[in-house]
Specification:
Strand content: under 5%
Distance between the termini: 37 Å
Largest sheet: none
Mean pLDDT: 83
Order of helices and strands: HHHHHHH
Number of domains: 1
Shape: globular
Length: about 230
């Protein structure tokens, strides 16, 4: 990713307010995103999240246009799928292509934000918002993974996560697992689904602990510097 960054741009940490608002809004409207139109709106939210991610890192113009084009491809395929314009034989490949695109963006964004948080020396509210963004991005990243697993194996979970291509239940399952609530209404059946569920639960427990430790460490370091 670093080779795509615009080194001539004014260097300042990315701001996470808008990204956080859009991701939280995506969660809040999830129950309303049913059927074809709802799926299109859900896809637009994901596209806009990716656009904000790409925009925040001040890429070179060529790289920026390339990444936006890839995100647009994912959004376009998602819309075509929601409208039922894909032949049955191509549905699996289309879903996997969409999830690959979303997964790459969510995964890389998580790593980039974590890198910036790790390097920060001054804890601000934007630092906190960035940490929350990472937590939500982890939930969305596992949404992508669960969709891919169920696409390969429709019996991977005790209850189908994808109903009429709607991702409402898979978003619910991902964030219930991430927060380790474990209601038990949906459970993994296949070995791959079980492994992903375990990994997400572990990340959901470890990340907040590590992030809070980072904040406290940075705060104490700043206090010691101020006292000196």
């Amino acid at each position: 990713m670093t080779q795509f960054l615009d080194r001539s741009a004014h260097t300042q940490p990315p701001h996470y307010t808008q990204l956080l608002i859009v991701m939280v809004l995506r969660l809040l409207v999830t129950p309303l995103l049913q059927g074809g139109p709802g799926n299109i709106v859900a896809s637009f939210f994901f596209f806009y999240i990716i656009f904000l991610i790409v925009q925040s890192y001040r890429l070179r113009r060529t790289a920026f246009l390339l990444f936006v084009a890839i995100a647009t491809l994912g959004f376009g395929l998602d819309v075509v799928l929601a409208l039922g314009l894909i032949s049955v034989s191509a549905v699996t490949l289309t879903i996997l292509t969409i999830e690959l695109i979303y997964g790459l963006f969510f995964g890389s964004a998580t790593l980039l934000i974590l890198r910036d948080l790790w390097r920060t020396r001054l804890v601000t509210m934007d630092t906190v918002r960035g940490g929350i963004c990472v937590y939500l991005l982890l939930g969305y990243l596992w949404v992508v993974l669960y969709v891919a697993v169920e696409t390969f194996d429709p019996q991977a979970f005790s209850s189908p996560l994808l109903v009429d291509s709607a991702a409402t239940k898979v978003v619910y399952y991902s964030f219930v697992t991430l927060t380790t609530l474990g209601f038990g209404d949906i459970s993994p059946v296949s070995s791959m689904a079980s492994t992903l569920t375990i990994l997400e639960a572990l990340v959901g427990q470890l990340y907040p602990t590590i992030f809070i430790g980072l904040l406290v460490g940075s705060y104490l370091s700043n206090q010691n510097s101020a006292d000196d």
